[in-house]
Amino acid sequence: xxxxxxxxxxxxxLALLSMLQAxxxxxxxxxxERLDVSERTVRRDVDRLRELGYVVHAVKGPDGGYRLEAxxxxxxxxxxxxxxxxxxxxxxxxxxxGAGIEEAAARALVTVRQVMPSRLRRRVDAxxxxxxxxxxxxxxxxxxxxxxxxxRNREELRFDYHSPxxxxxxxxxxxxxxxxxxxxxRSGRWYLLGWSDERQDWRTYRVDRMTLxxxxxxxxxxxxxxxxxxxxxxxxxxKGSAGADAWxxxxxxxxxxxxxxxxxxxxxxxxxxxxxxxxxxxxxxWSWAALAARLARFDAEIEVVGPPELRDAFAALxxxxxxxxxx
Length: 327
Known about the structure:
This protein is of the alpha+beta class. It is 39% helix and 22% strand. The strands form three sheets. The chain has a five-stranded antiparallel β-sheet with strand order 7-6-5-4-8. A four-stranded antiparallel β-sheet has the order 10-11-9-12. Strands 1-3-2 form a three-stranded antiparallel β-sheet. The longest helix has 19 residues, at 4-22. InterPro entries: CBASS_pafABC_assoc_protein, DeoR_HTH, HTH_11, PafC-like, Tscrpt_reg_HTH_DeoR_CS, WH-like_DNA-bd_sf, WH_DNA-bd_sf, WYL_dom.
């Protein structure tokens, strides 16, 4: 049965390991101060970590210190309670990542659970997580690793791309050549963001539609994504905007509905109550026709505030609807 002293030592080892993992170099005096022990105790604890298989180097210098590095074998893993919960959550939602790691994630969760204390195991078992929505297209893990390697090595990528709707018997297209920059997950799908010299522009490709070719191409000088924010840049591209992360077509209407009924379906639009059953809605879309169709979904009278392009789009939509009825 563990004594109070051994429990304290184990907790201190866990805290020491977490600190060594958090930054590259730690002065011995600072470690002792953070752990509220003597530097001699820190040296003994470092020796215990080495016995467990962790590679901890002594750093020479005025302050002296320690550095944790990767070893040739995987030593026992030590997690605090928050890390264990975070790991369990990550493994349970891995099924929706589309990275082909569902079975491995399930086995890893079983392994982690087996070594947890009973109290922590009960907390993990209480987690009920369900991935909602359509199942994301699966991507081969090896493809993701290859893409990550080419991004890190800054090597040009060659691949065939299966465009949606393209007939199977269509004339084959030459391989794409792209400078890969970022591998991104968005709404459960994996995308590659890269620079195309041929198009002289940034391009986004769904990874599940890529068939990689080998060998990779020459090295390239890394470019900066416009704006410096990859997430914002991709969000703008998916909205059809070549600039800021905003819909290129934005309009304003007043709907003959209460605020509560409009807010439920306003998406990223802005709503404002202007009367008991009148709500102002400011929304956007990639085209004026798409915006008019989006607003027409509300089963209510619509007053177009502006701009004129939105009014014209409603007129065109009404004409098409009238022709559909006559047909």
